[in-house]
Write a structure and sequence with these properties.
alpha+beta; four-stranded antiparallel beta sheet
Length: 107
C-alpha cells in the first residue's frame, strides 16, 4: 500500500496546512472513514509514513487492513477507504522527488 509514496517526499509546511499536527518531530493526522465507523491515524516520522485503523465503536485496533492474507468485501472496503485518504495526503502534502541526474553539457 505504501508504494504510492515511494518517489515522494513529505512537505511539513503543506502537511500543517492540510491538518497534520507536529509533536517532537512526529507528524500525525486523523480522519474518519466509512461513514465514521473507523478512525484512521496517519503518522509520519523521519519521512516514513504509517497508519493504524481503529473501530470507532469499540476503540479496538483493526489490524486486518495491514494483513495481506485477509480477503473479503469488508476488509477490501476498509483498505479502499484508507487508500483514498492516503492519495489525498500524497496530493496535498508530498512532493515528487526527481531522481534524474543531469550531466553538464560538454563544450
Amino acid at each position: 500500500m505504501f508504494e504510492i509514496f515511494k518517489a515522494y517526499q513529505f512537505n511539513s509546511k503543506k502537511a500543517k496546512e492540510y491538518g497534520f499536527v507536529e509533536n517532537q518531530g512526529v507528524w500525525t493526522y486523523s480522519s474518519t472513514i466509512l461513514q465514521g465507523d473507523f478512525l484512521m491515524m496517519v503518522t509520519v516520522e523521519d519521512g516514513d509514513l504509517s497508519f493504524q485503523v481503529y473501530d470507532q465503536e469499540t476503540r479496538d485496533l483493526y489490524p486486518q487492513v495491514h494483513m495481506e492474507s485477509m480477503r473479503g468485501t469488508f476488509v477490501g472496503s476498509v483498505r479502499e477507504a484508507c487508500l483514498e485518504v492516503l492519495y489525498g495526503i500524497r496530493k496535498a502534502c508530498l512532493r515528487y522527488r526527481n531522481f534524474s541526474v543531469h550531466r553538464p553539457r560538454e563544450s
